[in-house]
Amino acid sequence: MTALNRVPSLMARAGTASALTIAAVGGSIVVPGAASDASAATLATRALQIAASKKGSPYQWGAAGPRRFDCSGLTLYSFKKAGKTLPRTAAGQYNKTRHISASSRQAGDLVFFHSGSYVYHVGIYAGGGRIWHAPKTGDVVKLQKIWTRSVWYGRVS
Questions:
Q1: pTM
Q2: What distance in Å separates the CA atoms of residue 60 and residue 51, rounded to the nearest whole number?
Q3: Measured between alpha carbons, how far is 111 from 113 in angstroms, rounded to an integer?
Q4: Is 103 exposed, middle or buried (0-12, 13-18, 19+ CB in 10 A)?
Q5: Do 25 and 14 contact (CB within 8 A), yes or no?
Q6: 86 — phi, psi (to 5°)?
Q7: Which of 49, 67, 119 minimizes the C-alpha distance to 88?
Q8: What's the sign of the alpha-carbon dihedral 55, 85, 121, 5?
Q9: Contacts of 141 (CB under 8 A, 6+ apart)
Q10: What is the distance between the alpha carbons of residues 108 and 78, in angstroms, rounded to a whole number?
Q11: How many other C-beta atoms lie within 10 A of the C-beta of residue 129?
């Protein structure tokens, strides 16, 4: 992990901190041009935490919270609460993200399930090959292992 990636977690632990405080605890100062990456990491982390907070919420087709969700409704809700508006559908969200490789994925990135070129499901990557998602009718928002290799990854910025 680079020092730049540690800054959001250091800031969260310290609350409002001066540059000297961050440096004293082993952090670094965000330099011009790097702020967008730090902002994206913070946005993704917040969205991931919001999705996780909805654990156990029932699936309902077409629902986008705050108590019931479908898959893209959960991602829409989570990122909106974190400060970023996404399109309503999984395919629309895929088209609005920066596409990244599986080896580049990070917690908070979106995971798009596809059949050929058709995107049919989306969740938020939690790390360790798992996602937070709203699976299907009769189920609830939960953390689950990615069950197929037919996935694409996208980063919200």
A1: 0.76
A2: 15
A3: 7
A4: exposed
A5: yes
A6: -115, 160
A7: 119
A8: negative
A9: 51, 54, 55, 56, 57, 59, 69, 74, 132, 133, 134
A10: 10
A11: 13
Q: CA 63 to CA 117: how far, in whole Å?
A: 24
Pairing of strands 98-100, 151-155: antiparallel
- Token reading at 24: 């004293």
- The pLDDT tens digits of the residues spanning 38-69 come to 666 699 999 999 999 999 999 999 999 999 99
Amino acid identity for residue 27 in this structure: G
> What are residue 23's phi and psi, to 5 degrees?
-60, -35
Residues with catalytic function: 71, 121, 133
Q: Which two tokens stand for residue 47?
A: 């969205």
Amino acid at 98: R
| 32 cis-preceded (ω within 30 degrees of 0) | no
Q: What is the DSSP letter of 31?
A: P
Q: Looking at 31-155, which runs of residues are DSSP E strands?
A: 98-100, 110-115, 118-127, 130-133, 142-145, 151-155
Q: What is the pLDDT of residue 95?
A: 98
